[in-house]
Amino acid sequence: MTSNLEERRFYGMADRIAEEELGACFFEDVNNTVKSKLFQEYQSDGTVKDPRSWLRKRLESVFVSAGPPPSWVESSPMWPFLNGAPMIFVGQIAVEKNEVSESRLAVDSVLYVFGSRVDCEGGWKMEYRVVEQFRDSPF
């Protein structure tokens, strides 16, 4: 039987690796559902010698990018989840200063596009979410 302390340490390690090494976060992991599944998987694999390496490799398959990972302009990543799972990072778009953006958009914002397939009648459809961050944000 594992202690609650071991599980909490595992969660903390998952948070640090996700944020510092993968540009990801568990902010939307309601009730630690994803981290709990990872912890159970970790416990089931009784051969783990280096928990940090095991977890990093595993998290790379949890926080997936269709290309390069996000390059967040604010200090905290905001990786969205859908139906309890991290969405796939598609790409990012910088809104540059020009006549249109100055009058109709948020200048110097960066938009991060995430997507996921969602099952529906007859197959699946795509769901997208956009996260916005600002280059000059104090956060």
SSE layout and pairings?
Elements: H1 4-22, H2 33-44, H3 51-60, E1 81-82, E2 85-86, E3 88-94, H4 99-104, E4 109-120, E5 123-134
Antiparallel strand pairs: 1-2, 3-4, 4-5
Helix pairs in contact: 1-3
Question: What structural class results from the helix and strand content?
Answer: alpha+beta
The tally of strands reads: 5
Q: Which strand order spans the largest sheet, edge to edge or round the barrel?
A: 3-4-5
Described by strand count, sense and barrel closure, the largest sheet is:
3 strands, antiparallel
Number of domains: 2
Number of helices: 4
Give helix and strand order, one letter per element, not per position: HHHEEEHEE
> Rough shape?
globular
Mean pLDDT: 92
Could you estimate the helical fraction of the residues in percent?
25-40%
Radius of gyration: 18 Å
Distance between termini?
Answer: 40 Å
Strand content bin: 25-35%
Segments where pLDDT lies below 50 for 5+ residues? none
